[in-house]
Amino acid sequence: MTREIQSWLTDMDGVLVHEGTAIPGAREFLQALRDKERPFLVLTNNSIFTPRDLRARLASGGLDIPEESIWTSALATAQFLGAQAPGGSAYVIGEAGLTTALYEAGYTLTESDPDFVVLGETRTYSFEAITKAVRLVLGGARFICTNPDPTGPSAEGPLPATGAVAAMITQATGRKPYFVGKPNPMMFRSALNRIDAHSEVTAMIGDRMDTDVVAGIEAGLHTYLVLTGSTKKSDIVKYPFRPDHVVNSIADLIEKV
Q1: Annotated catalytic residue within 13, 149, 207, 210
Q2: 211-245 pLDDT, tens per residue?
Q3: Which of 80, 90, 128, 196 has the most C-beta neighbours closer than 10 Å?
């Protein structure tokens, strides 16, 4: 039985934008959500930027999305830690998106005996910071990562990202991190709570089978895979799970709102 979709979650890169430019149909899809008053959130594993930063970047690409409709792995991580250990402390490797989220969650950022080592994405990973993280984890700090993505995009090609640096720390310490972002369905559940939505009547739109689709399935959402990002149609058969629907792009979903 097809469920009537009342709320929407959507990935950002590869679904709404590509290299900073709006994908055809994205603007119209977002307008349809507003016209129908459908609750929605834009999800991203990118922990570098704050929602305000991302709103400005999306606006420059032609998309008007309010800050409160953007949910990042940094925000999900801060919410998780705030629930696990309220008022705790953390040594953070990351950018403003992560440090701001943790600060607003009531966390103290410190290099001295922190409760957690929190690793996010940055364009300036330093050997000194990674070494500090290794020593703190060996000293008893719990190891948390915003997301497991091993690489991130750039105009010049792939860059090492959070998952790759996490593997380095794990090799040096023998401690595996807890990843909060996609494909952990916890990120989706926290997003659902943010917009007061129910999984049975919420859809997830993504461009990756290994993060968006699998997490959507595990969170009990209706899943749509678009072919404007990382996954090609021929790639789908490589996975032991399937999205509910495969569409060419976000433009094909405007009438589904």
Answers
A1: 13
A2: 999 999 999 999 999 999 989 999 999 999 999 99
A3: 90
Residue with tokens 């703190």: 136
Q: Which of 49, 99, 39, 92 is nearest to 72 (CA)?
A: 49
Q: Rounded distance, CA 92 to CA 99, Å?
A: 7
Residues with pLDDT less than 70, the chain: 1-3, 153, 155
Residues 88 and 131 placed together within one structural domain of the fold: yes
- Tell me whether residue 235 is one of the annotated catalytic residues: no
> Residue 237, class by beta-carbon neighbours within 10 Å (0-12 exposed, 13-18 middle, 19+ buried)?
exposed
Count other C-beta atoms under 10 Å from residue 113's C-beta.
11
Q: Are residues 34 and 92 in the same domain?
A: no
Provide the CATH number for the domain around residue 166: 3.40.50.1000
Active site residue 13: yes
Task: Choose the catalytic residue: 11, 207, 210, 212.
Answer: 11
Distance CA 97, CA 5 (A): 31
